[in-house]
Amino acid sequence: MSSQITTLTLCNYQGFRNKIWAFGMMQFAHKQLEGIEGLSFYKLMGSGKGLGFSPIPDWGMYCLLQVWENEKQALKFLDSSPLIQNYKNHTSQQATLFMRSRKSHGKWSGTEPFEVSSELDEFNDKMAVITRATIKNKNLLKFWNYVPTSQRPIKNAEGLIYTKGIGEIPIKQMATFSLWNSMEDVRKFAYNSKEHKQAIKLTRELDWYSEELFARFQPYKLVGDWEGIELI
Predict the structure, then answer these.
(1) What are the pLDDT digits (tens) for 29-66?
(2) Taking the model in full, what pTM does it have?
(3) pLDDT digit string, tens, across residues 158-191
(4) Are 193 and 153 in contact (CB under 8 A)?
(5) Distance between CA 91 and CA 213 in Å, rounded?
(6) How many angstroms from the chain centroid is the CA of residue 91?
(7) Angle at alpha carbon of residue 192, lines to 189 and 197, rounded to 5°
(8) CATH 3.40.50.720 is held by the domain 5-224
């Protein structure tokens, strides 16, 4: 158990120059993120069009996932980091969601980045979910052929507040972020959707991934505004 927290900073960009800048920062921001006090893990990620996984990039939306030893260090970074200020100068909209880890299994780039929090609020039912996988080269075609079917139910999922497909490398290293009203809503989607259950079955049978991770979080704070949605 720990006081570790995870932040997810979402960024929207408008205009060709800002989108080109954002794409370049997928490479150039690494130097500014290395060695930051209290930062134990981070990922710079782009996004896909629409909901869930998508092979088509959304050039206007990027995100920064960070894992911190505690909230104080995260706030210090957000308040004083030249990198974050630079992002603000280019974004049309930016918001950072603060989350505490509930449960995580699997690995991300060979590590287990999320520690179960000792500061969970028993009265906060909101649930954030991150799923992440590296797809084996030999399974890329089979995986993407089934994606439209597996994602069909998400559009009408009960209790879903927001979802977006994100990832480090298009096509091969993919992730999804979703925010729900409660754990019960997550369970209903997972166990009542025949398409989702079939996707899980195929994952086991075909061994789609070389690495995968599933993590649940308790979101508890939002800095900024995101598409007019009440994320918290």
Answers:
(1) 999 999 899 999 999 999 988 766 677 889 999 999 99
(2) 0.91
(3) 899 999 999 998 888 888 999 999 999 988 887 7
(4) yes
(5) 29
(6) 18
(7) 85
(8) no
